[in-house]
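Issue 218. Parser rejects a valid record. Input:
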Amino acid sequence: MFGVVFPNRSFPLDSSTFTQIDTTHWLLDMNHFVGESYDSIREICIFLLNSFTLPPDKALALYIQSPGTPFLYCGAITLTRPSAVLSLPWPDPSTGDAAQLQLTAPDAPPLSAKIGVSVEDLAALTSLDVTADRKIERLALKVGENLFNFMQSFCGVDGSKLVVPMDILDRWFKKFQERAKRDPEYLKGFAL
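Output the parser choked on:
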């Protein structure tokens, strides 16, 4: 049905490596795969196998779960996007339920991190790659912050309004472009 690869960490693993919960849900226990160092796995490539046909209105959604935390949606693949490399932003288990579980049952074996895969309605998913959307949002915020700081150095105050020269956007954009041409590392500083 599907397969996964942990870039630079594994060979391709098919869905039989996962425990099938029912006809639309699979779980991979990270303890069996990497032990307690699950958070060192930062990316996963998930792909549809050639013989599997996913209905056009469905997607294979990928979730991660740190010990004692709820599942976190990371992204999905579809027939039109049959593979994807997704970031794995593991939730911090030292907050919330995980910390409470450790306090109430210190001798209990630690819960394990899991990766879940689920067949879901494509229309119900907010995004196919959550982390990429967050990166774009952070990039836009950093560029906006750069523009604001530039404008602030040229503005005056008129009551509760900022007054800036009419050509401020042109001046900022020219400066931005010139700096990017001179220093290729400059733009990399905006991407996280």
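Fixed in the parser; the record now loads. The longest strand covers residues 58-65.
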